[in-house]
Each structure stands twice: as C-alpha cells, then as structure tokens.
Design goal:
By secondary structure, the chain is of the alpha/beta class. Helix content is 51%, strand content 13%. It is built from 16 helices and 14 strands. The strands form four sheets. It has a seven-stranded mixed beta sheet, with helices on both faces. A three-stranded antiparallel beta sheet has the order 7-11-9. It has a two-stranded parallel sheet with strand order 8-12. Helix 2 crosses helix 4 and helix 8 runs antiparallel to helix 14. It is elongated.
Length: 485
C-alpha cells in the first residue's frame, strides 16, 4: 500500500494559496481572484508519487475572523453547533464555513502546515496573526513559514523581511522553520530546499520513503534541465553549421533569409522550453535587426588573435550587458539580437566586421555572434526556469528580457564565465560545422555550458534562504496535543 504525506497550504484569506499550488503543481488548479474566500473547500492535489509514497499538496480555504471560528469548533459536537455550521453557515455565512473547513482539514489530515505570508506585510501589520497562530497551535501540527510575493526586491531586503517574520514565529512551539518561496518567481532548487526543511517533521516511519521520494523529485527536475540544455545546444549548433553564398543577392535579401530563419528557430526553441516546464507563453519571440548590423555577425574564414578577438566580447558581456541589465533587461531593438553585446564589440571586432561581410563569397556566423545568440537563448531559459505558473503565461514578445534584480549579479557573473569557456572551445574550431564529430562535440560542450551557466545563476542565497529551528520535540513535551480548541 502506498503511504501518503500531506503538505497543507494555510494562510489568512486571499494571500495566494491557490497561486502557490498552481506553481508547485505546474497546472492551473482552483480559482484565483483578488477577493477573500475564493477557495471554499480543502482540495488535494498529487505533487508526485513513487511506488512507496505519494506527496500531496492541499489547497485550503483561507482563515477569516478567528474568534467565531474558535466558537464553532468548540461547539461542533453539540447538535446545535453542527446545525449552525452545516446549514446556517454553509448557506448564510460562507466565510466562517470556509474557515472551519480549513481548520478541520489541518486537524484531521495535515502532516505539515505551510503557512503563507506576504513579504509586503509585516507581522505588526498582520492583525490576524496572533489569533491564527493560537488556533494552529491548538491544532498541533508542525508549522513552516513561507514568505511569498517578494516582488523584485534585492536579496538583502528579502532576507531582512524573512528574519522579521522568523522572529515573530520563533516563540511558537509548533514553529519549525522559514524560507522564501515566491509563487511568481522561483526555481525547483527552492522546492527541494522546502522538502529538506520539512523532512525532520515527517512521521519517522515515512522518513526512508520520503528520502527516496525527494531523490526521485530531484532526478525528475535535473532531467528536465538536461533536456532544456540539449534543446539550446542543438539550436546553437544549427546556427554554427549555417552557411550561405552571396550569389548576386543584395544585403536586404540576405538579411531577410537570415532573420526569418533565426526568428523561426528561436520561436521553436522557446516553445519547446515553455512546454517542457509546464508553462504557457504569450506572444512570439522576435529578433529585431537593422541591415547595417547584419554584417557584424557574418564573416568568411579569417585567422584572428584570440586576445583581440574575444576581448571585445568579454567587454560586452561584463560591461555593456551589465549596464543594459541594470536598466531593466537585454535590449533587442538597439541592434541585431543583443544590442548591448553587439554595441560592446567595438575596437578590433567592429573595425573588421564590414570587411568580412562585404565582398565575401561564402558567409557564416562567426563565434562572437554564436556566443551572443547562445546568451540570448540562455536568457529565455532562465526566465522559463524561474517563472511561476501563478503569474500566468510567460510573455516572450517583449523588447526586453526581464531578469529579476535578485538574480542580476549571478547572471552577469555567469556570462563572464561562459564567454571564456566558449572562446576556449571555439578558438580552433572550423566554422561552419560540417562533420558529424564536430557537431557532436559542439552539442556536448554547449549542453554542459548551458547547464553550468543556469546553475551559476539560480544558486543564489534567495534560493537557499532556509532558517531551520530546533528539531521537533516529542508530542508529550511541549507540543499542544491534538484537541479541539
């Protein structure tokens, strides 16, 4: 028989429980609206199952006023109390009915309570907090604090918010830990951090099965990232193998051929990534270009000094890109693909760019452009991997890629590392790629580099902001017993 662990999303009403369930499950469940008591019954959803264990996420009605809720719970074994709840409240006082149902679920079903709070609110502002915590203490289930809706704040700001909430909950005997998990912007590494955090509070008889379950969850997400990296590598390899001839065509004709093909392949790649991560997209990707910028990415075979050739790319990646990101994103409109990077080529690269294009019989992408293209696709991947389904479809038709402020430093550093690895690999590689072995080698290298770059980006303190408390005491020590309030 398969065992079961229940993780219950609990909070005051209208604080994002259903949104969090959507993000964790990667599917649209329940109803989301900016009004109280939208969810009116406790509903289980399977997060993942192994042969031994099923872990469920329960979406529950939010708590309203706690005092009448406590009165109802104290009266529920009385016939009149039962009648008031099942008949009168159900029909005439829906908010109270929903709150009672949520409390009953915690008492009878929950293994762990995930109590959601919003970062924009402080414990002092949350007038409901004291009574709700008193209620949950009486229900006697381990409680973990989840800081949600952190917005685009810096890691320092979010860390201070988490510490403030942690201190407010620390005196409670049922409190076991706290972490940041934003339903709009998160990464699966944070989900793993959540499972690791709650593990000590799970029934000891289920610890072995839960450990196997966590490993299966991690393997599933790691395989997803491996597939995503392979999709990206294949796209860049395709560009690296592209070649055309002038054959009497004008710059405009060549431009149309190149830009249409790049747009088509980029759209296909992003759609694959969006589908792989269980999301929906809004709009279509687009690469805006100027004909004058086209020749910056094309050249006939030319031996270059590595230092001079890549210095401009590194300058663009760590200087121009950083400045552009600080302004809010990677700009498309200013140039071909990544205006900031191309604008940063300067000096050696830009001086000879037009010479490589004009008069060349055969044209193909040069490595500097391939890196820019690779960087662009990584930007899309980072958005997809961090996008919470609760936020709705991922908009991919903007003129800018939105990178959260909390991830900017890591993203900038990852690009500087990636361009060095990229240059080392492509330094002696003949382009365009033709042989099966060269394509295979490039695919393997780019897959690994894509994974490494994303790993450097998402491993931030924000992704690992877990504050463990002391191990759970035995029920007969200082935990309130399961009893009616």
């Amino acid at each position: 028989m398969t065992e079961q662990i229940v993780l219950s999303l609990i909070s005051h009403t209208n604080l994002g429980k259903t949104s969090m369930a959507r993000t964790l499950l990667r599917q649209d469940v329940g109803t989301v609206a900016d009004q109280p008591h939208v969810t009116d019954q406790s509903t289980p959803y399977e997060l993942m199952a192994t042969e031994q264990l099923t872990v469920q996420i329960w979406d529950t009605p939010g708590f309203g006023s706690v005092k009448p809720l406590l009165d109802r719970l104290n009266q529920e074994k009385n016939f009149w109390g039962w009648l008031m709840h099942e008949v009168v409240d159900r029909l005439r006082n829906r908010p109270l009915f929903c709150s009672v149902e949520a409390a009953r679920h915690v008492r009878s079903t929950s293994d762990v309570v995930l109590y959601l709070v919003q970062a924009r609110e402080t414990p002092a502002d949350a007038g409901y907090l004291k009574m709700e915590l008193k209620l949950l203490e009486a229900l006697a289930k381990p409680l973990f604090l989840i800081l949600n809706h952190t917005g685009d704040d810096s890691e320092e700001v979010v860390g201070n918010q988490l510490q403030t909430w942690h201190k407010a909950f620390l005196p409670s005997p049922i409190y076991r830990g706290a972490m940041v998990l934003d339903s709009f912007c998160r990464h699966w590494s944070q989900e793993m951090a959540l499972f690791e955090m709650v593990a000590p509070s799970i029934n000891p008889n289920l610890q072995a099965a839960f450990s196997i379950w966590r490993m299966a969850y991690q393997n599933r997400e790691s395989n997803r990232e491996q597939q995503a990296a392979s999709i990206i590598a294949a796209l860049v390899c395709q560009a690296a193998g592209w070649q055309t001839t002038r054959a009497g065509r004008s710059d405009k004709q060549i431009f149309e051929e190149v830009s249409n093909e790049l747009n088509f392949q980029l759209q296909k790649c992003v759609q694959e990534l969006v589908t792989l991560y269980g999301l929906d997209q809004e709009g279509q990707t687009r690469i805006q270009a100027q004909i004058d910028d086209l020749d910056r990415g094309l050249y006939s075979p030319l031996s270059e000094n590595k230092t001079g050739f890549w210095a401009s790319v590194i300058s663009g990646a760590t200087g121009g890109l950083a400045a552009d990101l600080a302004a809010g994103g990677m700009t498309f409109g200013g140039g071909f693909v990544l205006g900031a990077l191309l604008g940063g080529l300067g000096g050696f690269g830009l001086a000879k760019a037009s010479q490589w294009f004009v008069g060349s019989a055969k044209l193909h992408w040069r490595p500097t452009f391939l890196f820019q293209y690779f960087s662009l696709i990584l930007g899309y991947w980072m958005q997809v991997a961090h996008h919470g389904r609760a936020r709705g479809p991922l908009p991919v038709d903007r003129d800018q890629l939105h990178i959260p402020q909390s991830l900017l430093p890591k993203w900038e550093a990852s690009q500087a590392t990636a361009v060095n690895d990229f240059s080392d690999f492509f330094e002696n590689l003949d382009l365009p790629l033709k042989s099966e072995q060269s394509i295979k080698d490039a695919q393997t290298f780019l897959t690994g580099l894509a994974q490494k770059t994303l790993e450097l980006t998402h491993l931030t303190p924000r992704a690992l902001q877990v504050i463990p408390t002391n191990p759970s005491p035995k029920p007969d020590q200082d935990l309130p017993q399961n009893k009616q309030p």
